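User: My instructor asked us to take a sequence, write out its structure as tokens, and then describe one feature of it. I'm not sure where to start. Here is the sequence I was given:
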Amino acid sequence: MLEELSPLLKDLPPRTASALVQAINRCGEELNIGSDWVQRWIGFTVVADALTRYALGGEPAFELKGGAAIELRLRWPEKGSAGGTPAQPRATRDLDAAFRGEWDDIEPAVEAALEEPRHPFGFRVEVDRKSPPFLRRFRIRVRFLEERFGRVVERSFSNVKLEVSLYEGEHPTPDLVPAFSLKPFGLEGPDVIPCISLTKQVAQKLHAATEPPTEGKTNERFRDLVDIALLRALVPATPELRAVCEETFAIRGKQAWPPEVTIYETWGEPLEEMAREMGLPQRTAEEIARHVEEYVQQIAIAGSSDRPGAP
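Assistant: Let's start with the prediction itself. The structure tokens for your sequence are:
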């Protein structure tokens, strides 16, 4: 859909941040989508491109995951399954990445990946020192670089919230997902973004949505249930998916596979509101839970007749 847009400005590429914002506003109008979403995804794209081009030992060090990877696949039908999906993914406000290295290397790798300007954006990396023990959080300040009177001036463009965790388990070839195109803005950008496989995406979402809360806390991952409801249409219950789910639950070691799907008291209203906004066919919390439970059951028995000891 983006590729079908006519040039958004008479003179491209934009030479100033204000000219780029003008193009963003026009893009939002033509696509009938908020300009803030368009601006956020330009920021996501240039940060994700820089990260996924960074290599350690000759291999890409980062792959996109989480809500941004789902949105990238499903925002428009032609980026989903054959024939598309009738529902739309939720709009995500942060960028998640998996890192194929050691824990202590995450921070220097992020800083190294974003050290040089791209497209023509520069980056300032701020580390959140209050990150939980299983991931590292960053704020990436994306700057548009203007040439003014023979010198480069940085103009604030967007702030990207980045969360990075270690890659878990076996590493299949990443999915090369069509990128948010920067061509209508006259900017250079990637054609594809490497993302973790859909099977890993489903397994990680299932674990997060069903993880029992620690004492005195609540599980607030109701958004993962609507993500799973969307992904079910794309990822059939196969022995491969079952194996990845079993691996993910074993690595994280929080709850047994297959898990129970629980709708907590605080989930009902926001879960149903999100389902309506996304156009899910399942509208009540109970319907969503039943839809996910059926999926879990199908995955749990996938290929069971082929397993040793099966009748």
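For the description part of your assignment, you could build on this observation: The longest strand covers residues 151-166. Try explaining in your own words what that tells you about the chain.
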